[in-house]
């Protein structure tokens, strides 16, 4: 099989590209979703994992966000060949504040507009295009509404907040916790995201939409996350208690994994402590604090 990872030089994409020995479609590889000549190359691939997106939540960037995340995705979809597999990285944040009404958030959680930014709204709109073109062009499609996915550091990339906390602990820099550290998130190691992509590829499902995260077994508050990072690294965190960040919406998010377990036979395999230790590994294999 021939693989393409859009955003294959990014924070998560670097790891997926290496695992699948995939080609990279990103601006670092001189490929642009808004260039119709570039997106024609999608027709050459058996499996496309679409991670590339404009991730700015600023209202000033709304036009660019919609252009890249919606129009750019459509440009790609129009070239996917019949029988191919297309996996789209969406986000849990399409649910907005409605996720707070669930102990574990299912796929039928409302996605009505509730002050989501252009980033979340563009992802939700793009999901509909994925479904439309997959049926029209007869290729298999999978939408993963990703929860908090973390990965080992890679050159030139800015990590998500889990990686940011790890880097701050590693450097002895203060950490500002949203909502005093009380918000809860479920964490997913990038290797488990990779295995979910493989599970869909190898399944008989034609079109799937799944919440994908660590689930209740990998859920914890942000202050407990810092404690787990301290254990993983053998280092002590510095918490800036005088300047906390505002509490996020939702305050609690834990993925309901029932559907993805039922249809794809997938569940997270990376134990949290093992996963968090990968954030501190040095090139020579040592862990910070050893």
What features would you describe in this structure?
The chain is of the alpha/beta class. It has a domain at 3-154 and 188-216 and 252-270: NAD(P)-binding Rossmann-like Domain (Rossmann fold, 3-Layer(aba) Sandwich), CATH 3.40.50. The protein is built from nine helices and twelve strands. The strands form three sheets. A six-stranded parallel sheet has the order 2-1-3-4-5-9, with helices on both faces. Strands 6, 8, 10 and 12 form a four-stranded mixed sheet that branches. Helix 3 (62-77) links the parallel strand 3 and strand 4. Helix 3 (62-77) packs parallel to helix 4 and helix 5 (161-171) crosses helix 7 (222-233). It starts with a strand and ends in a 13-residue tail after the last helix.
Task: Provide the fold topology.
Layout: E1 3-6, H1 13-20, E2 23-25, H2 36-39, E3 47-50, H3 62-77, E4 85-91, H4 118-137, E5 140-146, E6 148-150, H5 161-171, E7 174-175, E8 184-189, H6 190-201, E9 207-212, E10 219-221, H7 222-233, E11 238-239, E12 252-253, H8 258-264, H9 272-277
Parallel strand pairs: 1-2, 1-3, 3-4, 4-5, 5-9, 6-8, 7-11, 8-12
Antiparallel strand pairs: 8-10
Helix pairs in contact: 3-4, 5-7
